[in-house]
Amino acid sequence: MSPLRWLLTQRVRLAQELLETSDLSVEQIASRTGMGTATTLRRHFHHQLGVPPETYRRTFRP
C-alpha cells in the first residue's frame, strides 16, 4: 500500500467514526479529516466503502 493510499484510508476511517458519532456536517468532517472539501470526501468515501457518507450516516443515525 502506498503512503498516499494509507493516508486516504486513515482519513476515511476517521470520517466513518465522525459520521457514526457526531452531528457534524459532511463539509465539517471533510475539513477535520484533512480531505479539504466535501466533494473530495464523498469521492474517496464512496470509492472505499461503496456508499456516500450521507447514506452511511443514516445507517447509524436514522
UniProtKB/TrEMBL annotation:
Keywords: DNA-binding, Transcription, Transcription regulation. Pfam families: HTH_18 (PF12833). InterPro entries: AraC_XylS_family_regulators, Homeodomain-like_sf, HTH_AraC. This is HTH araC/xylS-type domain-containing protein. Residues 1-59 form the HTH araC/xylS-type domain. One of its GO terms (molecular function) is sequence-specific DNA binding.
